[in-house]
Amino acid sequence: MLTFVGLGLYDERSITVAGRDRLREADRAFAEFYTSRLVGTSVPDLEAHHGVDIEVRDRAGVEQDPDPILDAAADGDAVFLTAGDPMISTTHVDLRLRAHDRGIDTRVVHGTTAQTAASSLTGLQNYRFGKATTLPFERAHGGSGVPDSVVETVADNADRGLHTLVYLDIKAADDEYMTADTAADLLADEYDERLAVAVCQAGSSDPTVVADDLSALADREFGAPLHLLVLPGDLHLLERDALVELADAPVDLVENWTV
Questions:
Q1: Are residues 171 and 127 located together in one domain of the fold?
Q2: Can you say whether the dihedral through the CA atoms of 138, 144, 146, 147 is positive or negative?
Q3: What does pLDDT average to over the chain?
Q4: What Rg value do the Cα atoms of the chain yield, rounded?
Q5: What CATH number is associated with residue 54?
Q6: What's the rounded Cα separation, in Å, for the pair 23 and 1?
Q7: Range of the domain at 130
């Protein structure tokens, strides 16, 4: 059996009870933290809290050499741990399909995702989000500014009145994480007087949620990672009030986005 377990968003306590039970009962535990990571804890702390040994795999160790994981699942009960929800990344879907090809039973224990947290913390309605996108570091896409793919996604969502969740680039191997102010600065060059919401430290006991013009967000600091941005589309009256109350949005700014 191979069970994919989502660790949630922040620390060793963010896992669900069902996920915790599967982890503690497993014969072997594997994990990857290159797609995302828990910034409120470390692997040794995870191991100590749950009383297990965790074998961390890099990208090549999951995508190109998954046999140690699959062999452990074929011979016993293995878990594969990821931050957030385990099936958000196509890497993990591929691993699950490889397990099925070998006749290995699989199970998924879901965890909280950044997308649901962004909706919950901002008060923006979950069903009013369109396609999400990722803003890369400029060096990562070999150009400058904002890639056309990001611009097109935001534009398509805006045309439909939908919100855009913007994931911010992570270079886990270098321990480097794009911050909301850096992202806002890049996006401000593309969008003039654009309402945005910074959502930072989601899953912690004291998350940071701030709504303002992109240029204003670019001049602020938002603390420790992980960060993301939301570019709202048309705002419902309740969403407008939520941004003012929960994210300190300037009233005159959100009024311009309210329908």
A1: yes
A2: negative
A3: 94
A4: 19
A5: 3.40.1010.10
A6: 12
A7: 114-255
Please identify which residue in the block is written with the tokens 């009383």.
Answer: 51
Q: In what order do the strands lie in the sheet with 227-231?
A: 133-135, 164-168, 227-231, 195-200, 208-213
Number of domains comprising the chain? 2
- 0.70 exceeded by the pTM? yes
Q: What is the pLDDT of residue 141?
A: 65
CATH value at residue 118 = 3.30.950.10
CA–CA dist 61, 97 (Å, integer): 16
Which of 87-91, 184-188, 244-248 shows the lowest mean pLDDT across its residues?
A: 87-91
Buried b (16+ CB within 10 A) or exposed e, 172-181: eeeeebbbbb
* pLDDT value of residue 79: 98
The pLDDT, as a whole number, for residue 238 is 97
Among 51, 75, 109, the domain boundary falls at: 109
pLDDT tens readout for residues 117-136? 999 999 999 999 999 999 99
